[in-house]
Amino acid sequence: MTFSGFYKKTREERITILKEAGLLSQESASSLINKELLNVDIAGQMVENHLSLFALPYSILPQIMVNNKTYSVPMVTEEPSVVAAASNASKIVMQSGGFTSQILKREMIGQVALYDVEDMELATKSIDLKKDYLLQVANAAHPSILKRGGGAREISWEIKSESGLDFLVVYLSVDVQEAMGANILNNMLEALKAILEELTSATALMAILSNHATNSLVRASCKIEVGTLDTDLEQARKIARKIEVASIFAKADIYRAATHNKGIFNGIDAILIASGNDWRAIEAAGHSYAAKDGKYKGLSTWIYDKENDILHGELTLPMPVASVGGSIGLNPSVKICHEILGKPKAKELAAIITSLGLAQNLAALKALVSKGIQAGHMKLQAKSLALLAGAKTDQVEEVADKLRQAKHMNLETAQKILIEV
Ligand code: NDP
Fold it and tell me: For residue 1, is pLDDT > 70?
């Protein structure tokens, strides 16, 4: 299937291409064309104090290759250039065989925090002696997950001290199968709370899932033939070396690290929203993982192998996404996203999302170390400025074109151009 020139097609043509490629049913294609995406009454049942619907652009990255399989990836973002950048980087990586992605583990961690512990040594020994019983209590609190092949797997504890207080923290790790697992974990942890209080002669402060999801790590990597980075091989080599240096810089400087990781999440958030996943949870997981060594660092690593002219990229981060639960079954736009992706299970979805994050990072670093980020960004930003100035759909291209040639690309200039048009 060819997606050549996809970005030049009309919205209807793009939907037809996806339908003809077997990625969209007739019903879903019609829903996209007619914008029948979320029923207002269903939306009203999803949240509190509901007023109406809030729309965002729903786009598609035509092709990304992950573990030798190609996917078209729905992306929901309001930011110009994110989809174009990810598409471009995915195309480059595809020329070198695409991304490889591994699920290192897939369990969710929750915690019961105890304080005012009478005797810490006795309390921790009691937990160690009762581990099997505690796991049974946890599983009894959400037995259906056992039937699905999951369940509580491990109990451990740590002592943490702060501001003169000693906390005994009990961690529970659970195989949540296809769910993100917040409710499974919280049911289990709340069942453990009173028992742990009694067992440790302590006061329980809270029992809740943790978003520092270190038992749900996913790694994406790629090996790019450097010649594919630029038509001029020497220029391509310079770019590869600078991408390597940029990834080192993102580990050295927190000001850069935050922006480096924000760029990764440009892509990750866009598919998380499209796939109905809790993007706040994955953001929290990614940023806390970036600070796991006590210093906040860039999440990706790029290494330029000069001898073989290969640029190696790697991104490891927690990706506890779900293929069921939350709003996934409720929002038709989300169902369409899963349909376009081929209804992947949670692990496959996590592999696609992490690979997309690495593609987004490659695009940002490549632009930053070569022509700079503004050239591409402002090119697309011109359209938003034209719209903000009040241009009608059929005037946008003309205003944006003139705006790109103007000395100062801002709203005032866009308004002046619009008057002339
Ligand atoms: P749900 O409770 O909506 O869905 C999970 C449930 O789906 C499971 O408990 C299970 O219930 C059922 N299920 C059906 N098929 C499967 C399967 N194959 N594998 C696993 N479960 C299956 O969602 P989650 O518990 O996953 O929680 C996610 C929601 O919680 C999100 O909306 C999130 O925003 C929110 N949340 C997040 C928090 C955080 O991140 N800190 C805190 C609190 C809430 P059963 O087996 O009984 O049928």
Answer: no
